[in-house]
Amino acid sequence: MRNDEGGTMVLEHAGHRGRPSNLSNLFAINNGTGEEEEDSPHRHSNASMASPRYSISTTTSGEGSPPRMMSPWIQPSPWHFPSSSSALENDFGQIGLIGSIVKEEGHIYSLVAAGDVLYTGTDSKTIRVWKNLKEFSSFKAKSGLVKAIIVLGDLIFTGHQDGKIRCWKVSSSNPSVIKRNGSFPNFTDFLKGSVKPKNYVEVRKKKSVLRIKHFDAVSCLSLNEEFGLLYSGSWDKTMKVWRISNFKCLESVDDAHDDAINSVAVGFDGFVFTGSADGTVKAWKREFLEKGTKHSMVQMLLKQENAVTALAVSKKSAKLYCGSSDGLVNFWEHGNQNLTHGGVLRGHKMAVLCMATAGNLVFSGSADKSICVWRREEGAIHMFLSVLSGHTGPVKCIAVEEDHGTSSNSDRKWIAYTGSLDKSIKVWRVAEHAPNLRVIQHGFLSDDDDGGRGRLV
C-alpha cells in the first residue's frame, strides 16, 4: 500500500503464532497572530543526530567507557519487511508478537501510547497516529526530528532536534484533525526576555542564548499532571520546567549536568530524576516559589564512566530504573528520605536505549535489537521473564499500556509498543505471570536459556 508521501507501509500480524534571539531576526518568527512560525526547512540544528556518548559496541561488565562517536545507525535502512494482512483485534489474545507496522520514511525515534491510540515520531519530522495498526492521522513540524512525545488529554507535546518544544491539540469534533496549539516558551515571554541582556546565558565563547529556550536538541520530556508541569531535558545540559496552561518557563536549571541530558523522569514524593551522558543520575527536589519553582539536587545516585541513556520510574513501588551504555540496568528504592541502590539487572549485550515500567514489569530496549522483560518480586528481587526478539535494528523507544481486553485479576496482561531504527514498530502482548526464562521471538515461545540474562546480580 502506498502512502501519500510515496513511502510503503506494510502491516504485519503474528496471527496464531502466539539561540540567542537578536532583534534583527526576532520578528521573523511571528506570523502576526502571536504564534510562532515553523523554521525554514533549510535551517540546520546545531545538534547532532545521535545521542551523545553511546555506541553500538558496549559490554555488560561495567568496565570502561564507550567511545565518544557519532552513531553509525543513522544510515538509510537496508531492511524491508514482507507484507501480510490481518487486524490487531483478531490476535486471539496470544502472548508474544501480535503485530508490526513498517513505514518507510524514517527511523522511529519516539512513541507514546494513550489508550487505543499510538503516536510515533521519526526523523521525517512527521508524527503519525495509529489505531489497531492502521494509520488514523498525522501532523508535521517543518523542522527538527521528533525526539520525544508525551500526551495529556487532548494535548500532545513534542520535543525536537532543533531545540523546540511544540504543543498540538486534537480537535474535539474530529479526532483525526490535530493542529499546532503553541510552542514553549510562549511568544510573549520570548519577546520580553529577548530585550533584556540579563536573560541571556553564555554557552560558548562569544555566544549567548536566551535562558528560557533550549539551544540544542530536546531529548526528553516528562509530565507532572498533578501540578500541570512539563519537564524538558536537552543536549544543552539544562533541565527546564514549564507551566502547561500558558507555555511559560518557570525555571531553567542551567548546567544541571556536565554533558547532554538524555532522560528526565518525574518521580514520587516530589522527586525529579535526570540522567546524562556524563555518566550521572541526579535526584532533584521541587519547591514552589511565588513566581515559579526551584529544583535543588538532593542526591547523586550514580557516577560512572558509561553514559546514562534511559530512566524509568515505578511510582507504585517507589523505584527508579536506569539504563546505561554498558548494557546494565541499575535500580534504586525509596527509603525514609533518600534512595538506596537496590541492585543491577544484566540482560543486554549492548547499550540500553529506552525503558518503561508497567505494573510489576520492567522493560528495557537495547542497541542489541532486543527487549528484556523483568518481573519485580517482593523486596529487591527481579525475575527475568523473557526476551522480545524480532527487530533488525536498535530499539530506540518503548511504551506500555494495559491490555484491558485480556487482563484478569490473577494475570494482568500488557501491550508493549517498541520503535526501532529499522523503521518498524512492533506490538507485543506480555503476561505479568508468564513463565520466566523464555525467549519470545517473532511470536513464538521457545525454551532457550537466558543466555546470561538473569535475575538480580
Automatic annotation (TrEMBL):
WD repeats lie at residues 211-252, 254-285, 301-333, 345-374. The keyword Repeat applies. Pfam families: WD40. Residues 21-33, 46-63 have a biased composition (Polar residues). It comes from the Eukaryota. InterPro entries: JINGUBANG-like, WD40/YVTN_repeat-like_dom_sf, WD40_PAC1, WD40_repeat_dom_sf, WD40_rpt. Residues 12-71 are annotated as: Disordered. Keywords: Repeat, WD repeat. This is Clast3-related. It comes from Hibiscus syriacus. The lineage of its organism: Eukaryota, Viridiplantae, Streptophyta, Embryophyta, Tracheophyta.
